Amino acid sequence: MEPPLVSVVLPNRNHARYISRAIKALLGQTWPHLEILVVDDASTDDSREVVSQLFAGDARVQLLALDKHHGVSGAVQVGLTKARGEYIYIAAADDFVAPTFFERCVAEMTRFPTAGFCFSDPTEFREKDGQVVHFPLYLRDAPTYFDPEGLIALLCQNFFHMSANTGIYRLSAFRGAGGYIPELEWLSDWFVTIVIALRSGACYLPEQLTYVTMRDDSYSATNLCDTDKQRELVNRVVTLLSSPAYVDVAEPIHRAAILPEYHFRTLLWLLVTRQGRTFVSLRLVRRIAGRAIWSLLRPYAPIRMRRYIRKTAGVLAGSTKDEQS
Fold this sequence. Notes:
Mean pLDDT: 91
Order of helices and strands: EHEHEHEEHEEEEHEHHEEHHHHHHH
């Protein structure tokens, strides 16, 4: 039996100065069974030339050049039509991964064939000073599989974010969840991750395997400042969760008080619509209030203190929950 193939979909728009680092990190994996689908989203810089010149001799790298701008989610969907692997990783042109990333994720997904997603601890690479900052989730001390009910119970007790960039999906689950839905724009990765995790469960690796480049002009940083657009996208999420295709995950999302953002404005957005009110709960109100207080204190809390608080939350939640490991 041949080892499973990992398909990497790497959307790119005008990131010529980063993309070679991202691709080299992918090609340097200890897991060699992969294909890298670089979807160039009508870049106006020399991104295509960089990819063609540096990686033309490696059959694992394919350049899919789009003539019109599709946006990140649309570009991912184009790559999804070409993906042949058992697993899929959605890469970012300005991020990079550790050499053992695929090997570790595939090993866990193989151990737990029902899992739809495998994620790890987030790590930031701060472009301004080159500093690397690791943010352990402290969910467990060893690799662990959480089935859907176990994951919901954990999320009820201990809020954490399963970052799409920190892991891989089972391709069948990714397609079944709709992939990156273009209408959700920058919330599409959050949505597909939550849907897959609540349907199939997820593996957690307490390891530092991926690096997100923190930039002031990044896609997420610039778009999250657009309050009107964010409100529109949150409403689209609520509408989707009320549709027949996703009604199975609406109840657990309500029960665990899971949202793409936690602000008092979000609560107001939910309260003004009938569909939105179905997701409001006492747990959600408490979570929003707690995160509001933490957002005021967080800038003054040293990294060590923040890690201690996160670890304490993880230990308290884990002490009362059963898991498979």
